[in-house]
């Protein structure tokens, strides 16, 4: 296969090589013609002079015949030597050498012999025989005419050769140029246009075109390569389009799945009390988005107690195969298949060790669920489990909060009203003994007075507790309850209470918040009832060690020493509450006048365990 591809992608006839050969031929013939022309032209360079020299011999021969030796004897001798010199001139000898293959040498030898043998002796005689010479001049001139004509013909024949050579060279150059142009047009220009058009089609995404360039040239190789590339690109584009379609479908499914999970999470967490109905409402949408068989949901409190709710994606009713409360007869627990032959795939709803139910999908054996279906179902099962777990946890926390609230009320009743009533019970028993002993009236009146004061104190404590438990705040925590208390006392008594609260970053437990609020209420109640004050200052802050400091100050008459005696129920309750906070409380005179109630205690989240050295939360 590799050899076949190599043969297909190889060239045997190169356009570039053939073009170079044609240019070499044209240049070669041009050079050859130029060189031959130069050579022949060089050969003809002396022919014109030789023709002139030969032609002048005729004139000199006639001039010698007309020379009078008597008047100018020296002139005859001079002209005689001139003719001899012309006859033997270098230009004539050179012409004879260039045209040695012709009859010019023989003619020249004949003329020279005629001159030397017949003509010159007549002129050299004393006196010169001019008449005889004149009679023989025509014969010499005829020989000279033949010599000149022969020389001219020889020169013209070489000029003919030059013209023929130039014509042949021009013809060959034109012929080669025509063949080259024709070859370039057929083998280069036309294929290039086709290849360019095909390249443009490929650039526009059209891979249907094919270019056929005959031969084994570079362009035929390029055409085969482009054809092969076009086929491969068409295959790649088709494969890419299929992959893009698949990816688009996968992304669409993923978006729909994510939207489904998001909607499910938002819907479930918006109704944390009972999410089971919301789960059932989502089953039909889950089936449509994931393109599965019927989906059913089975819920239970615990694995031992069995199921309590079952619903399907069609009508939110138990599926036909469900036989609640006989869960042991369920096909899931038997064969895992429905009577119709469909297989039930189970996705457990598990939160830690607790089994909260299962999500079941009916699927045919020949069409198993794909990973893009099982993963969302698993996530949805975890989401359902988390929602159910949160709902159960919320219910458990609500029960614990109710129990804790009842415990707080019981503790408050025990620490205040129960102790006050117990003390009055003792006072009543004492009164009975005094009456049995028939004690004097003063003792009886004192006992009745103490019972009356105790009952009033118990009633006041009961009113305080009712007021405390009825305080309405829109936000949890100590701060809103404290501000509501300040607003209440300011509105009912006209007392101006200024607050300085700096416990925003101090998380207190509910028990600590109740004790702090009750201490502040008791202190404000004492200011209103006993201090005769116009202003009251309340400050709450935490120092660098984490200790909470609460100060209640007023500008009233100040606390009297007899009011701090043992048995004063309000002060005793303040001390008990401070002890419950593991703190201390001091009640005394304010340096600037009035009363100062100062409470300090370490909050629970800053107390260290002596065993582990860690903070108690």
TrEMBL record:
Pfam families: HAMP (PF00672), HATPase_c (PF02518), HisKA_3 (PF07730), PilJ (PF13675)
Membrane topology value: Multi-pass membrane protein
Compartment annotation: Cell inner membrane
Annotated Histidine kinase domain residues: 408-605
Reactions this protein catalyses: ATP + protein L-histidine = ADP + protein N-phospho-L-histidine
Family annotation (Gene3D superfamilies): 1.20.5.1930, HAMP domain in histidine kinase (1.10.8.500), Histidine kinase NarX, sensor domain (1.20.120.960), Histidine kinase-like ATPase, C-terminal domain (3.30.565.10)
Coiled coil, from the record: 414-441
Protein name: Sensor protein
GO cellular component, one term: plasma membrane
Entry GO MF terms: ATP binding; phosphorelay sensor kinase activity; protein dimerization activity
Limits of the HAMP domain: 186-238
Cited SUPFAM superfamilies: ATPase domain of HSP90 chaperone/DNA topoisomerase II/histidine kinase (SSF55874), HAMP domain-like (SSF158472)
Ranges annotated as spanning the membrane: 20-41, 164-184
EC supergroup of this enzyme: transferase
SMART domains named among the record's database cross-references: HAMP, HATPase_c
């Amino acid at each position: 296969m590799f050899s076949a591809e190599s043969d297909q992608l190889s060239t045997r006839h190169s356009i570039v090589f053939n073009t170079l050969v044609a240019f070499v031929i044209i240049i070669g013939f041009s050079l050859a013609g130029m060189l031959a022309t130069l050579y022949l032209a060089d050969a003809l360079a002396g022919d014109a002079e030789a023709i002139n020299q030969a032609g002048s011999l005729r004139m000199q021969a006639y001039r010698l015949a007309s020379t009078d030796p008597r008047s100018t004897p020296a002139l005859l001798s001079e002209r005689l030597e001139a003719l001899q010199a012309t006859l033997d001139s270098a230009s004539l000898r050179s012409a004879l050498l260039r045209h040695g293959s012709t009859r010019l040498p023989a003619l020249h030898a004949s003329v020279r012999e005629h001159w030397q043998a017949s003509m010159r002796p007549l002129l050299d005689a004393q006196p010169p025989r001019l008449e005889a010479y004149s009679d023989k001049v025509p014969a010499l001139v005829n020989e000279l005419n033949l010599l000149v004509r022969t020389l001219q013909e020889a020169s013209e024949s070489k000029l003919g050769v030059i013209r023929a050579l130039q014509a042949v060279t021009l013809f060959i150059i034109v012929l080669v140029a025509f063949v080259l142009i024709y070859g370039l047009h057929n083998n280069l220009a036309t294929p290039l246009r086709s290849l360019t058009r095909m390249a443009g089609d490929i650039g526009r995404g059209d891979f249907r075109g094919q270019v056929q360039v005959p031969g084994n040239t570079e362009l035929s190789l390029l055409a085969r390569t482009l054809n092969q590339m076009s086929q491969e690109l068409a295959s790649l584009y088709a494969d890419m389009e299929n992959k893009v379609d698949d990816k688009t479908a996968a992304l669409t499914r993923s978006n729909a799945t994510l939207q489904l999970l998001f909607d499910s999470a938002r819907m479930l967490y918006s109704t944390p009390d009972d999410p089971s109905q919301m789960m059932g409402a989502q089953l039909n949408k889950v089936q449509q988005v994931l393109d599965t068989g019927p989906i059913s949901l089975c819920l239970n409190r615990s694995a031992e107690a069995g199921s309590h709710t079952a619903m399907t994606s069609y009508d939110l009713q138990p599926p036909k195969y469900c036989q609640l409360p006989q869960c042991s007869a369920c096909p899931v627990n038997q064969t895992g298949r429905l009577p119709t032959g469909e297989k039930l795939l189970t996705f457990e709803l598990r939160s830690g060790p607790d089994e909260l139910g299962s999500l079941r999908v009916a699927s045919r054996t020949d069409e198993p669920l794909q990973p893009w279906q099982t993963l969302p179902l698993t996530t949805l099962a975890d989401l359902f489990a988390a929602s159910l777990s949160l709902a159960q946890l919320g219910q458990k926390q609500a029960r614990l909060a109710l129990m804790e609230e009842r415990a707080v009320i019981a503790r408050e009743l025990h620490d205040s009203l129960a102790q006050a009533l117990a003390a009055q019970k003792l006072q009543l028993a004492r009164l009975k003994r005094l009456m049995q002993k028939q004690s004097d009236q003063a003792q009886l009146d004192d006992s009745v007075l103490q019972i009356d004061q105790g009952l009033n104190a118990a009633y006041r404590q009961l009113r305080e507790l009712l007021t405390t438990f009825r305080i309405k705040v829109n936000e949890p925590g100590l701060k809103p309850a404290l501000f509501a208390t300040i607003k209440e006392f300011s509105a009912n008594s006209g007392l101006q209470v200024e607050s300085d609260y700096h416990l925003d970053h101090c998380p207190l437990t509910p028990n600590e918040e109740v004790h702090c609020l009750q201490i502040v209420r008791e202190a404000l109640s004492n200011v209103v009832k006993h201090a005769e004050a116009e202003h009251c200052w309340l400050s709450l802050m935490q120092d660098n060690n984490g200790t909470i400091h609460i100060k209640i100050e007023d500008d009233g008459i100040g606390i009297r020493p007899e009011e701090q005696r043992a048995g004063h129920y309000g002060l005793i309750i303040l001390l008990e509450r401070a002890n419950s906070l593991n703190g201390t409380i001091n009640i005394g005179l304010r340096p600037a006048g009035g009363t100062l109630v100062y409470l300090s205690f370490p909050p629970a989240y800053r107390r260290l365990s002596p065993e582990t050295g860690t903070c108690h939360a």
